[in-house]
Amino acid sequence: MRNDWALALDIGMTPEIEARYASLSVPRYTSYPTAPHFSGEIGPEIARGWLSEIPSGEPVSLYLHVPYCRAICHYCGCHTWASLRDGPIEKYAASLTREIELVADIIGTRQPVSHIHWGGGTPSLLPRHSLLSVVAEIGVRFDVLPAAEHAMELDPRTVTPELAATLGEAGITRASLGVQDFDVTVQQAIGRIQPVETVEAAVKALVGAGIEAINFDLMYGLPHQTADGVRATVRQAVALGPHRIALFGYAHVPWFKVHQRLIDEKALPGTMARLELEAVAREALIEAGYQAIGLDHFARADDSLAIAASAQALARNFQGYTTDAAKTLIGLGASSIGRLPSGYVQNIQDVGGWSAAIDSGHLATAKGKQLSLDDRLRGAIIERLMCDFTVDTGAVCRSFGVKQSALSGCMLALDALVADGLAEVADCRVSVTDAGRPLVRVVAAAFDAYLARPNARHSVAV
Predict the structure, then answer these.
(1) pTM, whole model, 2 decimals?
(2) Does domain 34-330 have CATH number 3.40.50.300?
């Protein structure tokens, strides 16, 4: 790798500035306030009331969480468990169907749906009859719009022509494949062996089943990664023709995910090395013709994500960057998080506790956060910074009927970021500089009223 000083010059960041910010612990801002600030005071009865507030006829999104994999990868930060048997997964699907029925009954109308997203875990582990049964129940209880995007996260190692055909029959329109890295040494270190031929076969099967919108997830910051290895991974990934590529920084949180202790911390790149790996991958993706979207996504010019970004219509939710404009996101399944008209709700994380609540006819809400006017204001500003790298804070304040002076503390907090070349402030417009883009989460954090509170640990800023 190049030395730290050369890299710092390349990205407009001195080693001193890097040391000041890049190792800070800040949220990814897929919500605001973030999940560590949810409270157990928000339970099933409050969630029931919030569900009943969803405006009739207004499109909503559905997120279905399936917390099962055949094995747990060492790097995984998801709420998921290993199961070699289908029995527990079938039982889970039955409870998921009952939750759909329960939620739809509380809403009281057959609400239109604009987006459906399956995450996990490996949601495609649902047996064929279970998957089709859940999808059928969604179609009965909700009005899935003709143009709705129906996406699923997939493990390429599990994709067969038979599975791809089932996914096509279920109406899946977009598939997201976890690639991470093609280097064999890296794969061995993270406990996930999948040659490029495995991913190529998965893509071929999906496209053959009519699922042509393909996403890849790549990661930087993994053990034993090198700049040359990352370039090779990007080159191999691009050759398979995905419409979108998400480039995520590995979050090493062994205090939260115990299995991450299987990763040798000495093999992890340091902060400056992480910056270089991200920069190398970004440069290679842009050279390949992908447009940079927000903090960590890349898309072909004809993809809906790139079109939305150009129109400053990009949104950010628990699935990351999205074209989803729905104000309401209904989370289904253990640990899932939803955004309802009055605030956030999160289900019980434990599968047994979640299913027991659902099977007894009760919502499985474990905690949540009621949104104040100040939360909504700050959340809107943070979302625009994360999506567009610029925001007119005055315009946002006016849209909420709030005086700009309500943000005076935030604007003062930006002074140091401006002095260090990470942000610019002109009147009420805040913009992230090119040098500051890798640290956009740090700029967004200037508007976070909860960040200094205890009991919230986050990943590093890059």
Answers:
(1) 0.92
(2) no
